[in-house]
Amino acid sequence: MSVPTSRNYNTPFGLSKRTPKPVQAARAPVNSTDLGYDAGTIWCYQTGNTATDAAYINIENTGGSANFRPCAGGTVIVSTITGDSGGAISPSNGNINILGTALQIATAGSGSTLTISIPTTFSIGSTSGAAGGTISVGTGNFLVQGAASSTITIGTGVTTGAIAIGAAQTSGTLMLGGSGAATGQTDLAPGTGAQTINIANNTGLKTISIGNGTSGNAISIGSGNNTVAQGVNIANGASAADSTVNIFNTASTAGTQTFNVFGANATRAGAVNIATGAAAHVVAIGADTGAASLTLKAGTAGISLSTGSGSPGTISITPGTASSASTPIVLNARVGHAVFTGFTTASAANQVFVITNSFITATSTVLVTAANFGTNDARMTVVKVTPGTGTMDVYLTNNGPAALNGDVHINFWIMS
Questions:
Q1: Which residue, 125, 103, 184, is CA-closest to 151?
Q2: Which of the chain's ends, N or C, has fewer CB atoms near its CB within 10 Å?
Q3: Could you tell me which residue, 361 or 231, shows the higher pLDDT?
Q4: How far apart are CA 331 and CA 345, in angstroms?
């Protein structure tokens, strides 16, 4: 083999040009400005540090530009790439492939740039084995955003595990569904299986608000057309302290409040039990304020008032009362107690007592009793009652041996 004796490589090597003289500089070459160097020129970039020294070679001059390329040393040359596993990867034919993983990482090369990105359709993590993952943020926000018609699902593959949202929250707000003027629907446990929904079901003081807005909410609980027996319980636990259930228990400022239990639309027979448990319940129904009223209705089975075997007959009615030394007396009440004073009806004599009453009519059914007081043995007895429009005449006869010298008490109940 022939060895050239100079840099003019000719026969037998077939080279006609001399080897260009190397360049030594304290910077790297710039292709657009470092012109006039022959192809094959070696540029030695000397930084004074062997870890950063580098060498370049001009491959060709074309288009008014040099084409220096790194060929050794420094940080401009990539010898290997090392990942999380697999050790160092060396080039193959001068190339190292950086490839993505389907649905996780995508790579795209253009010119001298390799762009690594997350694809528009992607998957993070794995459901295999003990695989896990954590996404953390600091004081900034974490946003999972979708388009207007997107469907965002969380934990759709979890069947026996647990999904916790805001489990460690001690303050702040956890919102589900729209806010502001947003519309839409929020479903909890919409499946068709036997599901259990617990809300604020642990220890600690909870405040639960449902439908407390002011826009005329419609709130339904247990209102489905059930095909099997269902139960709706409110405050039905074995209380170990005071419990209060309030319905319409605030001072309303407008509108009419209506509370329906088996109302006009309940056309199937039902049962209403109020304070029927074996305990000393105190039940108050209605009010005696202003024009308040109470109506009890019954069909053919009637109305029964029972006080139980322990205290039979303890039923009371508060009557309207009036007193007068003359007749008529005005007493506008369905149940009344009228006291007439100063009358001296003789023995065997009759006396008519007139009661003016706005509830009575000529066809009213009226229950009337009479009693008299005084030291004489007078016995005022009801012999006749004549109802009229707005008035009632009560005829009494003194069946006693002595004249009346005390008050006469007439009790009445206008039943219709």
A1: 184
A2: N
A3: 361
A4: 23
Structure tokens at 92: 């193959």
- The CB-side HSE value for 21 (13 A sphere, CA atoms) comes to 3
- Assign 16 a pLDDT band (cuts: 50, 70, 90): low
Is residue 301 a contact partner of residue 320, using CB atoms and an 8 Å limit?
A: no
CATH 2.60.40-classified regions of the chain: 320-414
**What residue type is assigned to position 317 of the chain?**
I
Q: Looking at the domain covering 320-414, what would its CATH class be?
A: mainly beta
Give the integer Cα–Cα distance in Å for 118 and 105: 5
68-72, strands of its sheet edge to edge: 23-25, 42-45, 54-58, 68-72
Residue 18 is classified by DSSP as: B
pLDDT digits (tens, 9 = 90+) for 344-378: 999 999 999 999 999 999 999 999 999 999 999 99
Mean model confidence pLDDT for the chain: 86
CB contact set of 241 (below 8 Å; sequence gap of 6+): none
Per DSSP, helices labelled H in 190-262 are none
- Note the pLDDT of residue 11: 46
